Amino acid sequence: MGIFTRKKKQGATTEFKLLNSIKLPFIPFGDNITKSDVVMICIDRVASQCAKLKARYIKQDQNGVETEKTGDLSFILRNKPNEVMTPYQFLYKTVTLLLRNDNAFIYPKYNMRTLKIEALYPLNPIVVEPIVDSGNNYYLKFYFEDGTNYVLPYENVIHLKRFYGKNDIFGGSSSTGDHDALLKTVRINDSLLQGVESAMLSSFQIKGILKLNGLLNKEDKEKQIGEFNKAIGTAVSKKSSVIPMDLKSEYKPLSVDPKMIDQPTLDFVQSKILDYYGVSSAIFASKYTEEEYNSFYESTIEPIAIQLSDAFSLCLLTDNELKRGEEIRFFSERLQYASWNTKVGAIEKLMGLGIMSLNESRNLLGLEPVEGGNKRLQSLNYVDASKANKYQVGESDTSQTEPKEEPKIDESKD
Asked: What does the alpha-carbon distance between residue 408 and residue 220 come to, in Å, rounded to a whole number?
């Protein structure tokens, strides 16, 4: 392992070395797998759903009450990650890079004077080198297509990983990721599609031979062919199945039997690509039921949402802020994809428990908020658990005063 020497910078070390556990730099394979339309559709299905997640900077107090914090970070997460992306576009690109490269890197930009965060940028490097200095501090060296390269402290980069297991730093493997297995399936799928295309083209090839009886020169042959084509055109225009021919020519049909790939084989190969990205055939075709979407959410979307929350919190918040109960969480409104009956049933339960307000219920049904709709209603059918036994046996609440006796009536005065 070589030694990287650099110009000395203030607050930076001058000694670097490659990590021993990483033999080769990370090289994304996006240019290869994205040649498949099936791969691109799978990535879009996952990224488009993850982009609907809502990032919120929240704080939880000692009583478990959560409130959303305000400030620069909250504004960036909610409204404007950077000057060229909306929150949806930001998450879409981040998840797309993660699925293409098994890794996604986000650079938080800070104002050098005020040290306040200004923007978040998804990075798309062509090569990434992990580096550690003599003080056991970790860095990432990014190489970009324009020839520039930068070294950033690892703790200052939001790093998302997929297929994390083989390598200590990166998702996938250190140099090629884990796309080799996928590429095999993609190549097979491409070969099958080419076979279908070849079979279709063969159906347009020569279907017969026009035999000209006798020895003819080139001009006479071309004349005979012209007359035969004219006869075919006349028959077609007149919707006739009979083509007149003289004794000088004879048509012999050729048997062409193109072999098409059967549908089960095509479906099997494509399903292996779908399984690689956690996308079912129903999600792939955008024809899913409520249960199918919930399964897709729990198996594919929710793990990414959890990783986003953890990675953003660790990078953008200090240890003290984390200890105070602050975190960045990515919320998902899963019930937006539920059926009408499921939504109504959820509203009845949640409103009865005082969990949802009237406007939150209207929002779930796609209705506009109303004035005074932020109040939370609760059913009187629920009691304090600590007092349930007393209510069951008919005992009065100890907090209530004893009932007064009714005054006696003196009947002697009547």
From this structure: 137
Residue 413 located in a structural domain: no
Query: Mean per-residue pLDDT for 330-358?
Result: 80
User: How many other C-beta atoms are found inside a 10 Å radius of the C-beta of residue 356?
Assistant: 20
Domain presence at residue 55: yes
Per-residue model confidence (pLDDT) at position 238: 62
Domain assignment present for 208: no
Task: Outline where 114-213 has alpha helix (H).
Answer: 180-202
Residues 288, 342, single domain; the answer is: no
Residue 410 falls inside a structural domain: no
| pLDDT exceeds 70 at position 172 | yes
Given a contact cutoff of 8 angstroms between Cβ atoms, the answer to whether 95 and 47 are in contact is yes
Q: Is 341 exposed, middle or buried (0-12, 13-18, 19+ CB in 10 A)?
A: exposed
CB-based contacts of 141: which residues, under 8 Å, 6+ apart?
128, 129, 130, 131, 149, 150, 151
Measure the CA dihedral 129/130/132/136, to 10°: 170
Over the stretch 341-354, which tens digit does the pLDDT of each residue have? 888 888 888 887 77
- Full domain range(s) for residue 378: 338-393
| 289 and 375 belong to one structural domain | no
Q: E strands of 263-411, at which residues?
A: 326-331, 353-357, 376-378
Strand order in 103-110's β-sheet?
117-123, 103-110, 158-161
85-126 pLDDT, tens digit per residue, is: 999 999 999 999 999 889 999 999 999 899 899 999 999 998
Q: Which segment of 44-53, 62-71, 275-284 scores lowest on mean pLDDT?
A: 62-71
111/65 same-domain check: yes
Predicted pLDDT at 222: 76
> How many independent structural domains does the chain possess?
2
Question: CA 149 to CA 165: how far, in whole Å?
Answer: 27
- 381 in the same domain as 293: no
